[in-house]
Design goal:
CATH architecture: Alpha-Beta Complex
Strand order of the largest sheet: 1-2-5-3-4
Helix content: 25-40%
Number of domains: 1
Number of strands: 7
Shape: globular
Structural class: alpha/beta
Radius of gyration: 15 Å
CATH class: Alpha Beta
Distance between the termini: 49 Å
Strand content: 15-25%
Length: about 170
Amino acid sequence: MDILDLNDMDQITETIWLGNLNSALNINNLKKEGIKKILTISDSPPKINDENSFFIKKMIKISDFPNRNIIKYFGKCLNFMDGEEKILVHCKIGTSRSATIVIAYLIWKQKMKYDDAYNFVKIKRKRIGPNSGFKEQLKIFENLLIKNDYDLNKIDFNNIERCGNSEFFVPLNK
């Protein structure tokens, strides 16, 4: 299968699909699956031909490099994903940025450990591969959730910054 296959999305949970850019552009397939929301994690917005505004869309602009601070978007993304509506979470190829967000959701909502959430998603979508910096941020996020009783509202996502020359981010002390 071509890495940018038009139907390249995998169902992760009852309401979450993980895919690539082309899966977000395949309006007929999205409607067939009952998807109502599209979360784009990319450095450039896709041109989704949705003239009737059938979908609720959110765009998070971030590139796929280990030194990018993706954790600061977790609150916005996870709150957007939460609910009964079916959602497609995608980036360009559907392996790193979007997989990171889906794994973060499972760590939060299902109270999974990082390794368990990663393996759960990997079983459903074989070619996931968050970059090394995103993996580190997922582990930090898991620890933040445990310390805050899994309450997203207790985490100050605007107060998480790059730590020195490392490729991961830690919360700043106030």
